[in-house]
Structures are given as structure tokens and as C-alpha cells.
Design a protein that fits this description.
13-stranded antiparallel sheet; outer membrane lipoprotein receptor (LolB), chain A; single chain; mainly beta; 46% strand
């Protein structure tokens, strides 16, 4: 087996370990997918985080700066002040520092899922969308075959799942108490974020959207 075939076999094996996407629950609906957005104005959120990875476990504090309609910066600090990382979202673009060893590269999910941790719907558009409603819960499968599943409770984004081959590869869930969890099922990586404070503040300096 050559190297390319070996890598492909490993990827297929890992994907097979991901859970299958369950069927949509609820009654078919013609409702449109809710448009979830970040708060109007400028907001700073303080949080603590915990990472559980097969090769790396860590915890620390962090801060998110949000500027409506579509800009965010997340800063992560390791406990004890021994490291830090940052990520910037502007629209659909995810910016990470050029340093390969930066902490953020081990923490942050792709842009649509990272936006999901902040409550904003930002998955790629697709013509094929199936919507089901079950009480106060709306679920939408996007794409054919399904590439994303979104779950809303009373128009609030609760869960974003990235799907490949009818399996859930990675997901974000936002719990009612503010706790947010990101999990990559193939890599067995899990990030938990626990917000502790949110403040509306004045405009940010434009320099925060640039990373070294």
C-alpha cells in the first residue's frame, strides 16, 4: 500500500467511527431557517475554557470581542500565563496567526462552527433544505446529500453539525445555561467554553482584526 492509499484508509477508518446522522424529527414545514445574528453594537464576553484532546489537554481563560454584523475576535490564554492564542472571524473568513504552534490552531473549529459557538448562523448556502418542526424545536438539513444540520429552539441557534457521508464529523452545541461545547468526533477533540460575563462596550480599535 502506497502512502496516499494508507492516508486515505486512515481517514475512512476515522470517519466510520463518527456517529450516523439520525433522521430528522418532527413534522415537515415550509418555515424558513431562522436568521441568528450576534448582538447589535460591540460586545465583550469573558469566558473560561477546557480542552480535551488525545494528545493535549489544557484549560485557561479567554475573551471574545464581537462587532455586528459579522466580526469577532477570540483570545485564549493558558492557565498560568504560559501561552496564548487568537482567532479572528470577518464574515466567512477565519484568520489565524501565522505561527504554526499557536494555541488557537489546536482550539478553534472551522468558521461556520466557530460562528455557531457565538450564536450566529453562517453555514454555506445550499438549494436543498429540509425543515422539520417538533414543538418549539426546528431542525434543518442543508444540502443533498446533507452537509449541515441546524437545530433551533424558539428561533435561538442551539446546535450546528457538519455532516459527511451521512455521519456527524463535528458539531457545536449551545446549552441553555450559556455553556458551549465543540466536538470533533473523528479526532476525538472536545472544547468546552463557559462564559462568565458579557458587556456592551464602545467601538474597538481596528487593529484587533489583524493578527501577526
Amino acid at each position: 500500500m502506497n502512502r496516499r492509499a494508507a492516508i486515505l484508509a486512515l481517514l475512512l477508518t476515522g470517519t466510520a467511527c463518527a456517529p450516523r446522522l439520525p433522521p430528522l424529527e418532527g413534522a415537515p414545514s415550509v418555515r424558513v431557517v431562522p436568521s441568528s445574528a450576534i448582538p447589535v453594537g460591540h460586545t465583550r464576553i469573558i469566558f473560561r475554557w477546557e480542552l480535551d484532546d488525545p494528545d493535549f489537554a489544557a484549560r485557561g481563560d479567554g475573551a471574545t470581542r464581537l462587532a455586528s454584523p459579522d466580526s469577532a475576535r477570540l483570545d485564549f490564554f493558558l492557565g498560568g500565563g504560559i501561552g496564548a492564542g487568537a482567532a479572528v472571524l470577518v464574515g466567512d473568513e477565519l484568520r489565524l496567526p501565522s505561527r504554526a504552534e499557536d494555541l488557537a490552531r489546536r482550539l478553534v473549529p472551522p468558521a461556520p462552527l466557530l460562528w455557531g459557538t457565538l450564536g450566529r448562523t453562517a453555514v454555506p448556502a445550499a438549494r436543498d433544505t429540509a425543515v422539520r418542526v417538533d414543538g418549539d424545536t426546528l431542525r434543518a438539513d442543508i444540502g443533498a446529500p446533507v452537509a449541515w444540520r441546524l437545530t433551533f429552539v424558539r428561533d435561538t441557534l442551539r446546535r450546528v453539525e457538519r455532516v459527511s457521508g451521512a455521519r456527524v464529523i463535528e458539531w457545536v452545541e449551545r446549552f441553555a445555561d450559556g455553556h458551549v461545547r465543540y466536538r470533533h468526533e473523528v479526532n476525538r477533540r472536545q472544547l468546552d467554553i463557559f462564559p462568565s460575563r458579557s458587556d456592551a462596550i464602545g467601538a474597538f480599535d481596528q487593529s484587533i482584526w489583524t493578527l501577526p
